[in-house]
Amino acid sequence: MSLPSVLPSSRVPDPRDAPPLRWGILATGGIARAFAEALRLHTRQVVLACGSRTQDAADRFAAAVGAERAYGSYEALVADPDVDAIYVASPHSHHAEHALLAIAAGKPVLVEKSFTRTAAEAHAVVDAARAAGVLAMEAMWTRFQPGADIIRQLLADGVLGELETVIADHGQAFAFDPTHRLYAPELAGGALLDLGIYPLSFAFFALGRPGRVTTVGSLAPTGVDRQLSLILDGFAAAPNAQALLNTTLAAKTPTTASISGSEARVELPGPFYIPQPVTLIGRDGVQLTSAQPTIPAHQGLCYQAAHCATLAKEGRLESPLLPLDETLAIMETMDLIRTQLHAS
Fold this sequence. Notes:
Layout: E1 22-26, H1 30-42, E2 46-51, H2 55-65, E3 69-71, H3 74-79, E4 85-88, H4 95-104, E5 109-112, H5 119-132, E6 136-139, H6 146-156, E7 163-171, H7 191-207, E8 212-219, E9 225-233, E10 242-248, E11 257-261, E12 264-268, E13 279-282, E14 287-289, H8 301-314, H9 324-343
Parallel strand pairs: 1-2, 1-4, 2-3, 4-5, 5-6, 7-10
Antiparallel strand pairs: 7-11, 8-9, 9-10, 11-12, 12-13, 13-14
Helix pairs in contact: 4-5, 5-9, 7-9
């Protein structure tokens, strides 16, 4: 198969076209601020309210992002009748608890990744959302960016040929501090849930669920996973393919990703999880590269919010781009990875 003369155009709508919702942001850390800023710059979404564990923290966050209302408890936030949807931005140690709060209040909920700590917690959230008829979605923001849609079309059209190898990594250098959330077991610390979710979700995006996982890794002094290297294989749709993934808390790695097939490969530069150009490279070395994204870095969080708002207005209960069953499969795979690590 010859390469196309041009890359497909992204079908991702302009985030400003999404119907506006009045959002409540649950928790007030760095990702919450980035989310609010992305909405302000690139969408018609409204950050109506925020909630924190203390009123002072909520007030400071509301002043910083221009939210009209600030609540000193998460229960008060989800009870606000004017809030249309909840963005759960707390540490993943509390995602299940806070998602369930939103669902019980009948609010559509966008839950930061990793969706929960464990597959059991993820199943509890998904079961509750389905029983209540409430939209729930994992905030794996890379899935909703224009570059992901370009790759999605290349895969659907078979441009890469028979898929052979997926390679992705995500490492950040954090000095060891037992009180830091990534090193603290009580906050579900470790590389996998916070960083490794990106390469793992990318492998699922390209190849689906693996039939086998092989894990090599090491632990930090606090007992959380410090570094993991993974080989995934046994994919139903790509029986010869393997995924080679790495994550670490202790080094800044290239954080790149690629999908290679018998006819061509696609590459994403680092960090691959933000909006990036997509490069398609044929066996003969011919390259096609998409345009530089117009929405940079963490401002790309606007795409997931716009997608979630559209789903909510349409009365849909989950995303076709990241179905809940896939989120559950990813969580089950992460459980298996940690089981293998601690058994080794």
